[in-house]
Design a protein that fits this description.
The protein is of the alpha/beta class. It has 14 helices and twelve strands.
Length: 401
C-alpha cells in the first residue's frame, strides 16, 4: 500500500470465528461486498441465503425476522420502520384502484386515516365494520373487497372480536373465493393467542405488529413487522416493501433482539398489573365503565375467554375507563394532569405507565351503544408496582372535585 489512508480503508479485518456470547453481533451495512462480478450478477436480493444491499437485510435483521416468525408461528417476515409503515406496506401491496378494504370501527386510528387519505385519493374505497358483529362484516364484503383488517383487542376501547367467526366469514366470502385477512397483532404480541393457528383450521393470512410496543419494551424504538405463512403473499409484500425503500437501523434491530428474551415475562407482568388496576377501578363510583377484555362485562369478553382464556388467560397491559358523564372534560383533564407515576404520552409497551384521554365521539361515529357516555382515558401499565400505581390513580381522582 503506497498510502496509509488506503491501508486504513482496505484493512485486513476478518469477522471473529470461535467467539460465542449471549447476544449476536450487530451487522450494519448499506454496501455489501461481492467477491467477483459473477457473484454480483447472480445473487438474488429476494433470496435470504445471501446478502446484496443493506436495505434487503444483514445477518442482524435476518435473525430478528426469524425470531418473530417463531414468536408468531409464521414463515416469512419483513421489518418496517414503524408499525404504521407495516400497515401502509400491506395496504399498498395488496390494494389497487377500484378495490375496497374493510377496517374494524375500533381499529388503530392511523390505519383509518390512511384509508381516508391516500387510499381514497387513489380510488381505493373503505368501509368500517362492527368488530363485535361478524354478520356485519359478512354483509359488507363484496366483489371489490380485497383486504379485511382485524384487530384483537381493538385500540382504545378494547372490544375483543370473535376472530374465528370473522375468519370464517373471510374464508367463505365471494362464493368461497375468500378474501385476504390481515391482523394487527400488536395487542397480542404473539403471546395472547396464535394468530396463524386459531384452531378449527382457521388462521389469518398475515399479521403486522408494532414492535415499538412490547417487543422493544423500552419506549425508545420505532419498528414494525409483517409476518406471513405463504411464500407467494410474502413476495407480493416484499416487492412493494423493496420499491418503497423501507429499511430499519441495525442498532434498533439489536435493541429489539435484546428485549425479546424478556418479552413473555414483561407481558405477564404488564397484564397482571393492568387487571389489578382495572378491577380496582370497577369499584370507583367516578367511572361509569371499565374496559378490559378479561372483565366479564367488557365487550367481547366471551370471545377473549375462548381464545386467550386458558388458565388465568392472557392480555396486554391496557385498560380504559369512561368517566361518569357528570364529569366535564376539563375535570377529566385535571385528573390526567394530576397523575404522577402515569405519564401523559402515546404508545405503550415500555417500563413507564402512560395515560391518554380520548375524545371517543370524534373517533366513533355513531358512538356504539355498548360504550357508556362520558370521557374516556386509556391507561397502559408499565412495570411499576401495582400498589404504587393504584395510589397514583386514587390521589389523581381527588382532582375531579
Ligand atoms: C402503536 C400501534 C401501531 C403503530 O405502531 P408505530 O410503531 O407507533 O407506528 C399499530 N397498531 C397498533 C394497534 C398500535 O398500538
Amino acid at each position: 500500500m503506497s498510502d496509509k489512508t488506503t491501508g486504513l480503508i482496505h484493512h485486513p479485518y476478518v469477522p471473529p470465528e470461535g467467539f460465542a456470547a449471549p447476544q449476536p453481533g450487530v451487522f450494519k451495512a448499506s454496501t455489501v461486498f461481492f467477491p467477483n462480478v459473477a457473484a454480483m450478477r447472480s445473487r438474488e436480493w429476494k433470496d435470504k441465503t445471501g446478502y446484496t444491499y443493506g436495505l434487503h437485510g444483514t445477518p442482524t435483521s435476518y435473525l430478528l425476522e426469524e425470531r418473530l416468525c417463531a414468536l408468531e408461528g409464521g414463515a416469512q417476515c419483513l421489518l418496517a420502520p414503524s408499525g404504521l409503515a407495516a400497515i401502509a406496506t400491506v395496504a399498498l401491496s395488496l390494494l389497487q384502484s377500484g378495490d375496497e378494504v374493510l377496517i374494524p370501527d375500533n381499529a388503530y386510528g392511523p390505519n383509518k386515516a390512511l384509508a381516508q387519505g391516500e387510499l381514497k385519493d387513489w380510488g381505493i374505497t373503505h368501509q368500517y365494520y362492527d368488530p363485535l358483529d361478524p354478520q356485519d362484516l359478512a354483509r359488507r364484503i363484496g366483489p371489490k373487497t380485497k383486504l379485511v383488517w382485524l384487530e384483537a383487542a381493538g385500540s382504545v376501547t378494547l372490544e375483543f372480536p370473535d376472530l374465528r367467526e370473522q375468519l370464517r366469514v373471510c374464508r367463505n366470502a365471494n362464493g368461497g373465493a375468500g378474501v385476504l385477512s390481515a391482523l394487527d397483532n400488536t395487542w397480542g404480541a404473539g403471546l395472547a393467542f396464535n394468530a396463524f393457528d386459531l384452531g378449527r383450521g382457521l388462521g389469518v393470512d398475515l399479521t403486522i405488529q408494532a414492535l415499538t410496543k412490547y417487543p422493544s419494551g423500552g419506549g425508545d424504538v420505532l419498528m414494525g413487522s409483517i409476518v406471513t405463512r405463504d411464500p407467494g403473499l410474502h413476495i407480493r409484500l416484499k416487492l412493494t416493501h423493496m420499491r418503497l425503500g423501507l429499511g430499519v437501523g441495525m442498532n434498533d434491530v439489536e435493541a429489539v433482539l435484546r428485549s425479546l428474551p424478556s418479552l413473555a415475562l414483561r407481558y405477564r407482568e404488564h397484564d397482571r398489573t393492568a387487571r389489578a388496576l382495572a378491577a380496582w377501578c370497577q369499584g370507583c363510583a367516578e367511572f361509569a365503565q371499565v374496559l378490559h377484555p378479561a372483565l366479564p362485562d367488557s365487550p367481547g369478553h366471551a370471545a377473549w375467554k375462548t381464545l386467550c382464556g386458558a388458565e388465568e388467560g392472557r392480555a396486554a397491559g391496557l385498560f380504559s375507563v369512561v368517566f361518569d358523564a357528570r364529569y366535564r372534560p376539563a375535570q377529566v383533564d385535571a385528573f390526567c394532569d394530576a397523575l404522577r407515576l402515569f405519564k401523559l404520552g402515546y404508545s405503550w409497551g415500555g417500563p413507564i405507565s402512560l395515560a391518554v384521554p380520548y375524545d371517543l365521539d370524534s373517533m366513533r361515529q355513531p358512538r356504539p351503544a355498548h360504550l357508556a357516555p362520558g370521557t374516556l382515558v386509556r391507561f397502559s401499565t408499565g412495570l411499576e408496582a401495582a400498589a404504587d400505581l393504584q395510589a397514583d390513580l386514587a390521589q389523581a381522582l381527588l382532582a375531579l372535585r
